[in-house]
Amino acid sequence: MSDPMEELDRFGSEFTGGPMPLPASEIRRRGDRIRRRRQAVIVGGAALAVAAAIAVPVMAVTGSGGGTKVPPADRADGAGSVVMPYDLLTDADTVYSDGADWFAVGTDDADPEAAFHPCARESLGDLGATSVEHRDFEQRNTLPEGADIEVLGDAMHQAVAQFGSAAEAQAAYDTIVGWVNDCDGRIDGITTYRAFDPLPVSLTVDGEATVIQANYGPAPKELDEFGDGGYITETGVAVSGERLTVVRTQIVGQDYNFLDGTPVQRMLPVAAELMQPGETAPDATPDAAATALPDDFALEAGWPDVTDGETRRISDGALLVDELTTACGTEPRLGAPADTRTGILQGPTHYAFRGAALYDDAQGAADALASLATTYSGCGADDGALTTRYDVTPAAEGEGWVRIARVTTVGGEVLEESTRVLAAAVVGRALLITGSEGEGGGTPEANDAALDQEVTQAQPVLEQLAALTGEG
């Protein structure tokens, strides 16, 4: 038998036996389909866990040195400077063959910056990215006769990164392309790696793009029972302005031939177009009739990463009941929103909260904001020498905003024991409330600083609401 990695070297343009006698949809796996796939006996999340566990030795990044953490949807310094989930490919944008396709399964929350490619030697944060979003995909059969057959070892990952300048994005592009071309000996458990000449890519936006195909092995016995296959990968890298995307696919097999361009060649131009600042995916256009916040609505976007001793939770249901009760025991009348979502970020010395509500019309959201302002401005609580009031002011952010800060005094002097603030904004038919409480402060100056931070960190959420309600 010939050496399997030598056979894999005939990647893309030819394979043993001469010119391809079958269409791409038929030759994509050939006999390898029978060897690699098995009848699924575990379904749902457990099945995904099994596939992920097998793929870990190959997908894990080595040599990153830990990396600089960049929270998904980090704080924006200007319009379009934050990468959002809708800047990524979706199920509607992916392609593979007539009998299979890629389907989104989520992201790696442990250290997503360090997991964008197994050949990476640094994280995207280390390369200078200021905002990063990731999405993982699995491959599934799409024909009825293969719907109950599990595909193991095949994976796709995309990252989109925002940089401070076009020059930094271009430098990151050049670095990543170099890493993929020179990856021999850099992946744990892999003894053979070969990259091939880059494939051309035609973009519909200004920029540069390339697709690098590579084969490496060996694959685990669980994925390649007879040892005559290996990993076949494509890495697409595109840069446009201050943004960069990396799209990587991995299958286990022997043959990988497509007559109308490889899957990544076809997906990369779409990915480059979707990542443009201010753009939304074709299936994520604003829907003025939307009655619910989408499942992928990221209320936590812009918050810092959770650290030791902190907890973060997102839930549906009542909108910040306890957090919006004043010192007078009164609560604002927020009407009857069609959908709500609440987020809490809690640590030993601080407590942050957010609430998003979607109403049937813009008047409902405006009425809720007005009630919020009226309730707090009308509260003045006295407890002997201790008094509490709320400073309610229009926000510098403009119309549709209100800023609220608690001020507690003892004998006329400001009590600098804690700071509690909240800001609220109307975005079309939506209302966003964001606030925090922490030790120390309590002065007007500390309150203003805390409010500035809340408003800044909430920008990614406001952008999502604007896209949802058509106000963007």
Q: What order do the helices and strands follow?
A: HHHEHEEEEHEEEEHEEEHEEEEEEHH
List unreliable stretches of 5+ residues: 1-79, 108-112, 279-288
Number of helices: 9
**Major β-sheet annotation:** 9 strands, antiparallel
Q: State the share of residues found in helices, binned by percent.
A: 10-25%
- End-to-end separation in angstroms reads 60 Å
> Which strand-content bin applies to the residues?
25-35%
3D architecture notes:
The chain has 472 residues and is an alpha+beta fold. It folds into two domains: 4-284, no CATH class; 311-469, PknH-like extracellular domain (Protein Transport Mog1p, Chain A, 3-Layer(aba) Sandwich). It is built from nine helices and 18 strands. It has helices at residues 4-8, 24-27, 32-36, 45-59, 166-181, 263-274, 362-377, 444-457, 459-469, and strands at 38-39, 100-106, 129-141, 149-150, 155-163, 192-195, 208-217, 230-240, 243-253, 311-316, 339-346, 350-358, 380-383, 386-394, 401-410, 413-414, 418-427, 430-439. The protein starts with a helix and ends with a helix. Strands 10, 11, 12, 13, 14, 15, 16, 17 and 18 form a nine-stranded antiparallel sheet that branches. It is elongated, with a radius of gyration of 26 Å. A hairpin with a 6-residue loop joins strand 14 (386-394) and strand 15.
Structure described in brief:
The chain is an alpha+beta fold.
Features:
472 residues; alpha+beta; 18 strands; 21% helix; seven-stranded antiparallel sheet; Protein Transport Mog1p, Chain A; 2 domains
